[in-house]
């Protein structure tokens, strides 16, 4: 690739605003077309962000100037759309998850490999300065040897803000498949690949009701567990326990705490690109309640340039040009999916389930990575 990389977007729904806001400001890419099955929606987004072409999906697939296509469709058709992109001779950046089954997702990666094309998989939030700074701190031994992690995502559910939330309670979504990729991806960046999982799941109610927009009041079925309690065991050592729930009136989101032999590091919400990072050191003296606990808490300076969704695609574009691997690979996305599906199976069987896939090495974003720099 010489010069800015041509990018197209398929899917002009809610999340397209975040991608378009960022991708249209990165000098190394040019957003050339927006496509959607609802062509009017694609045209509205193209006009809003100054994208020159818009219409149906073929407007993107048939454009010879487009090298990478962003797949922002619903999870159930992620693989179908990604395969069409590969068939059109273009690289894929897909929203998470890579697919809703192992078989179709593996088939997609095989087709991409055969075509000499790349697949990148969200979430790229974990490639932002927040998680990546924390990852570097852990790698250099700031908390000693990582031992275990605790993560929490709980609230009352997306129907309170989303105008059409039914797909978020369908197969391939729910709090685990929709939000789990953020937390599992962050943990895999720190601990490496997952070896096995155990879980318990429940369904708060069999139906939900839309609360906003034109469909307000409409009921829809819940097809997945709406609360899961999860244990994870990592190949290289280390454990994690997590809660994913859309049944809780108490909101506790973005909690990622990793404890090592020399302290506990609190990582920013993995659904964001940055935030405060702190390390709490072990107690140095005995305390007796109600005496205050005296512990050393260290602020870790965030390294890198803060941006937003699309940075993973940008890393892929620059990596293609340089002939090196990108960080958020299809294999990484597949391992995260495999882990999440294994959690579902563990919840159904109430037993430990082995995660069959693995990873050789988990990539990282350099602290000097600047999305707003022209490099191509």
Helix content: 25-40%
Provide the residue-averaged pLDDT.
95
Instruction: Summarize the helix and strand pattern as letters.
Output: EHEHEHEHEHEHEHEEEEEEEEEHHE
Shape, principal axes of CA atoms: globular
CATH class of the largest domain equals Alpha Beta
CATH topology name of the largest domain, in short, is Dihydrodipicolinate Reductase, domain 2
User: What low-confidence regions span 5 or more consecutive residues with pLDDT below 50?
Assistant: none
Which architecture of the largest domain per CATH?
Answer: 2-Layer Sandwich
Number of domains: 2
Strand content: 15-25%
Structural class comes to: alpha/beta
Largest sheet: 9 strands, mixed
Domain Gfo/Idh/MocA-like oxidoreductase N-terminal: 6-121
Pfam family, one: GFO_IDH_MocA
GO molecular function: nucleotide binding; oxidoreductase activity
InterPro entries: Gfo/Idh/MocA-like_OxRdtase_N, Gfo/Idh/MocA_oxidrdct_glycsds, GFO_IDH_MocA-like_dom, NAD(P)-bd_dom_sf
SSE topology sketch:
Layout: E1 5-10, H1 16-23, E2 29-35, H2 39-49, E3 53-55, H3 57-61, E4 68-71, H4 78-87, E5 91-94, H5 102-115, E6 119-121, H6 129-139, E7 146-154, H7 174-191, E8 194-202, E9 207-209, E10 219-221, E11 227-234, E12 239-245, E13 252-260, E14 263-267, E15 278-280, E16 297-299, H8 311-322, H9 330-349, E17 353-354
Parallel strand pairs: 1-2, 1-4, 2-3, 4-5, 5-6, 7-12
Antiparallel strand pairs: 7-13, 8-11, 8-17, 9-10, 11-12, 13-14, 14-15, 15-16
Helix pairs in contact: 4-5, 5-9, 7-9
């Amino acid at each position: 690739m010489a010069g800015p990389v041509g990018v197209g977007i398929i899917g002009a729904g809610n999340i397209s605003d975040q991608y378009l806001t960022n991708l249209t400001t990165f000098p190394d890419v040019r957003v050339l077309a927006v496509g959607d099955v609802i062509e009017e929606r694609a045209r509205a987004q193209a006009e809003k962000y100054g994208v020159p072409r818009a219409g149906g999906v073929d407007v993107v697939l048939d454009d010879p100037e487009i090298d990478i296509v962003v797949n922002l469709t619903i999870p159930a058709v992620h693989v179908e759309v990604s395969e069409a992109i590969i068939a059109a001779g273009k690289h894929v950046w897909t929203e998470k998850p890579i697919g809703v089954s192992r078989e179709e997702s593996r088939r997609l990666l095989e087709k991409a490999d055969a075509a000499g094309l790349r697949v990148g998989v969200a979430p790229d939030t974990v490639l932002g300065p927040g998680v990546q700074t924390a990852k570097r701190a852990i790698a250099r031994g700031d908390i000693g040897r990582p031992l275990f992690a605790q993560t929490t995502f709980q609230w009352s559910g997306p129907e309170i803000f989303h105008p059409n939330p039914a797909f978020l309670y369908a197969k391939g979504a729910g709090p685990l498949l929709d939000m789990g990729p953020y937390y599992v991806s962050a943990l895999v960046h720190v601990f490496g690949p997952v070896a096995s999982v155990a879980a318990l799941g429940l369904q708060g109610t069999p139906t939900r009701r839309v609360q906003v927009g034109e469909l307000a009041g409409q009921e829809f079925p819940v097809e997945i567990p709406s609360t899961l309690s999860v244990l994870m065991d990592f190949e290289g050592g280390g454990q994690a326990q997590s809660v994913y729930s859309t049944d809780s009136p108490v909101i506790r989101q973005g909690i990622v705490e990793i404890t090592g032999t020399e302290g506990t590091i609190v990582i920013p919400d993995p659904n964001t690109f940055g935030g405060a990072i702190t390390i709490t050191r072990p107690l140095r003296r005995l305390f007796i309640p109600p005496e205050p606990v005296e512990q050393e808490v260290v602020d870790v300076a965030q390294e890198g340039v803060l941006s937003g969704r699309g940075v993973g695609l940008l890393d892929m574009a620059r990596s293609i040009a340089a002939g090196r691997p990108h960080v958020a690979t299809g294999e990484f996305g597949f391992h995260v999916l495999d882990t999440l599906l294994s959690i579902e199976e563990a919840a159904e069987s109430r037993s430990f389930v082995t995660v069959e896939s693995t990873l050789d090495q988990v990539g990282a974003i350099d602290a000097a990575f600047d999305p707003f720099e022209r490099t191509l």
